[in-house]
Specification:
The protein is of the alpha/beta class and 268 residues long. Helix content is 41%, strand content 21%. The chain is globular, with a radius of gyration of 18 Å.
């Protein structure tokens, strides 16, 4: 598929969000897409909700939902893939990657929000830059995904060396062209902070990530313990430096200090 975007969504305890996620994709202004919903043995009724939506999109309950009448063809492009055992988000995304039919790959977490023009604008940007890897700015949202006004701006270009000191690439903002970058490089390792590890791996192989500095995604932040989240993030980023990238202690410490400073500024 020369222009299709394959959108890969891990599904685990996503029942509160998944119907909105699917509707959000259907309302994208760019219409050539497929949606792969990877059920990672979710213990809630996420899969049932997805199956019902697919049936509705096929026309069995169109009269009850006016939004479905606008996009009657989407049932064939929404695919529920059920895994046999729970393996985590990285493996769920890798399963979607293996089954994807589109030339372009986009990751989306079920609790995040895309602006309607997200795919259209980012794909145009990717083609303009003749790039293999693009990402966008994003806005922090509350537990109901309402924008808070805190926007994370992104650089126009990001190399491997620069990426080590800033985790500015957010998973739900990325877009890849598989005619320019092999799927094997996009596969996520089974480690903590697998998304950051993947971006670094790609950039380490000589690719450049291009940033579209327009907030086309809302990052939902549930009301959790921020101090606990910070401790977890610190541990994960340090392990990536030492175990995945195999940086020296001195280089790791330098990158870590720069990362901590930028992460703090980003959240102010």
């Amino acid at each position: 598929m020369k222009k299709m975007v394959s959108i890969i969504v891990p599904v685990y305890r996503a029942a509160p969000y998944i119907a909105d996620t699917i509707e959000m994709v259907r309302r994208q202004t760019y219409r050539d897409w497929e949606l792969l919903l990877i059920d990672d043995c979710s213990p809630d009724n996420s899969a049932e909700i997805i199956r019902n939506i697919i049936k509705e999109a096929a026309g069995q309950a169109v009269d009850e939902n006016p939004a479905l009448r606008a996009y009657p063809e989407t049932a064939e492009r929404i695919r529920l893939i059920r895994k046999e055992r729970n393996e985590g988000a990285a493996c769920a995304r890798n399963t979607g990657l293996e089954l994807a039919k589109g030339r372009y790959i986009a990751f989306l977490d079920a609790d995040d929000v895309w602006r309607p023009e997200k795919l259209e604008k980012e794909l145009a940007f990717l083609r303009k830059k003749q790039a293999a890897f693009a990402f966008t700015a994003y806005e922090f949202g509350d537990e109901k995904a309402r924008g808070t006004g805190k926007i994370v701006k992104v650089p126009e270009r990001l190399s491997y060396q620069k990426a080590l000191s800033r985790t500015v690439i957010f998973t739900s903002t990325v877009l890849f062209d598989t005619e320019k970058i092999p799927k094997e490089l996009i596969r996520m390792p089974v480690v903590e902070s697998e998304d950051t590890a993947t971006w670094w791996k790609i950039l380490r192989h000589g690719y450049t990530a291009y940033g579209l500095n327009e907030p086309l995604v809302i990052y939902r932040r549930p009301a959790k313990s921020l101090s606990s989240n910070k401790f977890v993030a610190i541990k994960r980023i340090w392990n990536l430096y030492r175990k995945e990238e195999r940086l020296t202690l001195l280089v790791s410490a330098f990158c870590f200090c720069m990362w901590a400073f930028r992460a703090t500024v980003r959240r102010l």
